[in-house]
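Re: the 209-residue chain
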Amino acid sequence: MRLLIACLCAVPALAGEYAILSNGFRLHADRHESSGGVVRLFSEKGVTEFPASAVTSFEMEEYVPPAPIPVVEKVAIVAKRVFSPRELVDRAANKAGLPRELVHSVAKAESAYRVDAVSRKGALGLMQLMPGTAAELKADPRDPEQNADAGAKYLADLLVKYGGDVAKAVAAYNAGPGAVDKYRGVPPYRETRLYVNRVIRNYKDLGGQ
């Protein structure tokens, strides 16, 4: 009997009840029956009989349902489209309300469409933004899309400042508004004059007015 009790104590608890024996052991059973001074415990292992005097009470097992299998919702994973430099320029021009041809001409002159371009003066990216200018425009110059958008926005602001004068706006993009204001037009810097001529020529070649 002791061996039988020990074996029954090792049975994993399943939903049902516990028979509390007079010696303190608790035996799990699916159910029980009492008749003629005998208690029968029914479980998946079979039937075990005890004298009724050996069983002091029964306790219902608290049934804990198994944790529900989590439902994994199908989340649509949408890959962010990677735009080419030219597409970024098109999108930036549209956002800034500028002719695409003009923004393309500046991007070509500034970086030849290289999103990783870095100049000797520290200008960065597709539109060659100086860190200070990028900060004023709240843009990360190392992010190609933000770089293109900020460059187009800056060019648009310059065109507004100079009343739509493309030469002055482009010169200011290259040499800074301070230089254009000082000379009241394209400053006499060889680099800037070549830059302005190159941008305007390419702008016209692309169909710009």
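Residues 85-205 form a domain with the Lysozyme fold (CATH 1.10.530.10).
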